[in-house]
Design goal:
By secondary structure, this protein is an alpha+beta fold. It folds into 2 domains: 7-115, Gcn5-related N-acetyltransferase (GNAT) (Aminopeptidase); 147-318, Aminopeptidase. The protein contains 9 helices and 13 strands. Strands 1, 2, 3, 4, 5, 6, 7, 8, 9, 10, 11, 12 and 13 form a 13-stranded mixed beta sheet that branches. A hairpin with a 4-residue loop joins strand 8 (224-234) and strand 9 (239-247). Helix 5 (174-181) crosses helix 6. The longest helix is centred in the middle third of the chain and has 16 residues, at 183-198. The two termini are 30 Å apart. It holds the Pfam family Acetyltransf_1. One of its GO terms (molecular function) is acyltransferase activity, transferring groups other than amino-acyl groups.
Length: 325
């Protein structure tokens, strides 16, 4: 297609990471990132044993990055014919054909693969983005809430009893478990619990096995907080349940929840609630003012738990799908 005068498209380079982090912050200010985090995630994809496909195209005007089209495959939900597509355009550059040019290049790239299933999304309060995806053949597959707790308004006193783990279980952070078991054994216990807990996390496709080597790389992520990994540990050293807190890329007063879950044999004992309360206590002691967590709208147990604690939903992320594998 003919590009607007002054608009150029080119393959993204690693040196674009600062500009791409800034672009994401402009488009999705509630989900900012850093150049360091983007480069770490890109390195993880490139090094993953599944060899997921990664393609990124930037749009420039007068030498300034104003948009990004990307296609990649998530190792956690991998299928050789399933792809995830993203398209970002700076708000100030919208309405000048940047999105159309990137979308055309993205579609050509997907056609060349070819892609049998493509996932893409936007927030439910972005009607322009939803309409754009609908015009390209996408239909809603699932919604995910950002749930936010204002720690300044949270009163832990009524939760004192629920915060106690059942007899026979201890609350340990990942560094404390490493001190007891050694680094590899502790990470393997953490991994075993995460593997089982994530099996019941709602998603738009089947989960891919969580390989131990790939799991270990999360410890190198710039926002990873070892002390924020809280574990319910049995007398034999097994991890029965876990919750994770990550630092935020831009807001030091905000923490983000990763996976919270309980192994099947240990459920219905209130372990997830106890660990969430321990995480809230840790967050308060660290000086955090808010905790953000993401939940699929179909994950009723976790949504109910978070609502009880005072988390309140923000506009949902609408995951949309075209095709099927």
């Amino acid at each position: 297609m003919t590009l607007n005068p002054g608009l150029t498209l080119r393959e993204a380079a690693d040196t674009d990471a600062p500009a791409l982090a800034a672009l994401q912050g402009e488009v999705w200010p509630q989900h900012t990132t850093t150049a360091e985090a983007l480069l770490h995630e890109l390195a993880d994809l490139r090094a993953h044993p599944l060899r997921p496909h990664v393609w990124r195209l930037v749009a420039e005007e007068a030498g300034e990055v104003v948009g990004l089209a990307s296609v990649h495959q998530f190792p956690g939900m991998f299928h050789p014919d399933r792809y995830h597509a993203d398209l970002l355009v700076r708000p100030a550059a919208q309405g000048r054909g940047v999105g159309r040019a990137l979308a055309a290049a993205l579609e050509a790239h997907l056609d060349a693969r070819p892609a049998r299933e493509v996932l893409a999304g936007t927030q439910e309060d972005h009607p322009r983005g939803l309409a754009f995806l609908a015009r390209h053949g996408f239909r809603e597959a699932m919604r995910f809430f950002d749930n936010v707790l204002d720690l300044r308004a949270f009163d832990p006193a009524p939760w004192a009893e629920a915060a106690r783990l059942p007899e026979g279980l201890r609350l340990l952070s990942l560094p404390e478990l490493i001190a007891e078991q050694g680094e590899d054994a502790a990470w393997r216990a953490y991994h075993a619990a995460a593997v089982e807990a994530r099996e019941d996390v709602p998603r738009t496709g089947e989960a891919t096995p969580l390989l131990y080597g790939a799991f270990r790389t999360r410890g190198e992520h710039p926002q990873f907080l070892p002390a924020g990994v809280l574990l319910a540990v049995t007398a034999s050293g097994e991890v029965a349940a876990l919750t994770e807190l990550y630092a935020d890329a831009a807001d030091p007063a905000r923490l983000n929840t990763g996976l919270t879950g309980t192994r099947r044999a240990c459920r219905r004992q209130g372990l997830a609630l106890s660990l969430k309360l321990a995480a809230l206590d840790l967050a308060r002691r660290r000086g955090a003012q808010s905790i953000w967590t993401g939940n699929a709208t179909t994950n009723v147990p976790m949504l109910t738990l978070n609502e009880r604690l005072g988390f309140r939903p923000r506009p949902a992320w609408t995951e949309m799908k075209r095709g099927e594998v």
